[in-house]
């Protein structure tokens, strides 16, 4: 398991997902808090390449020894890459949620949606209220 962390450069969604903005694309994953709450991840069901994701809507499932959880899109866009390594090693989500445990890469359809996401201070405040 990774140690608790919330990188400053990421944007956060209230459903415990993160986005790393890279120009007109973004990489999505789940936060340390989400993977910790899930427990040991045993399966990741990604969306199809080319799928259109809608902000705040489920786009994938993560299955752990405890539960199956939907993963919510922090932003809208088209899936341009899926982390294929998770098919054989879904535990990467637990070990490195912000690195090797990334889920998908998306070409953003509305980059202005980034403004509605939380920065790290606001996300930590949300966590302290739970």
Explain what the structure shows.
- This protein has a single domain, classed as Beta Barrel (OB fold (Dihydrolipoamide Acetyltransferase, E2P)), CATH 2.40.50.100.
- By secondary structure, the chain is α+β, with helices and mostly antiparallel strands.
- It is globular, with a radius of gyration of 13 Å.
- Helices cover 18% and strands 35% of the residues.
Strand and helix layout:
Blueprint: E1 11-13, E2 17-22, E3 25-30, H1 32-38, E4 41-45, E5 52-53, E6 58-64, E7 68-72, E8 77-82, H2 85-88, H3 92-95, E9 104-108, H4 120-128
Antiparallel strand pairs: 1-2, 2-3, 3-9, 4-6, 5-8, 6-7, 8-9
Number of strands: 9
Percent in helix: 10-25%
Q: Please state roughly what percent of the residues sit in beta strands, choosing from under 5%, 5-15%, 15-25%, 25-35%, 35-45% or over 45%.
A: 25-35%
Helix-strand makeup class: alpha+beta
Averaged pLDDT, please? 96
CATH topology term:
OB fold (Dihydrolipoamide Acetyltransferase, E2P)
Could you give me the name of the CATH homologous superfamily? RNA polymerase II/Efflux pump adaptor protein, barrel-sandwich hybrid domain
CATH architecture: Beta Barrel
- The stretches of 5 or more residues where confidence is low (pLDDT under 50) are none
* Widest sheet, order of strands: 1-2-3-9-8-5
**Which CATH class applies here?**
Mainly Beta
> Compute the gyration radius: what is it?
13 Å
Ends distance: 21 Å
Can you write the helix and strand succession as a string? EEEHEEEEEHHEH
Per DSSP, the total helix count is 4
Q: Summarize the biggest pleated sheet.
A: 6 strands, antiparallel
Shape by Cα distribution: globular
- The total number of structural domains is 1
């Amino acid at each position: 398991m990774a140690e608790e962390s919330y990188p400053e450069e990421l944007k956060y969604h209230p459903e415990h997902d993160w986005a790393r903005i890279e120009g007109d694309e973004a990489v999505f994953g789940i936060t340390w808090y989400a993977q910790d709450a899930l427990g040991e991840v045993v399966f990741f069901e990604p969306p199809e390449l080319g799928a259109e994701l809608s902000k705040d809507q489920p786009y994938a499932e993560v299955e752990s020894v405890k539960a199956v959880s939907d993963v919510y899109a922090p932003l809208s866009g088209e899936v341009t890459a899926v982390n294929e390594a998770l098919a054989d090693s879904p535990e990467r989500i637990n070990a490195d949620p912000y690195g090797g445990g990334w889920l998908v890469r998306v070409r953003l359809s509305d980059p202005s949606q980034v403004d509605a996401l939380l920065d790290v201070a606001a996300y930590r405040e949300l966590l302290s209220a739970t």
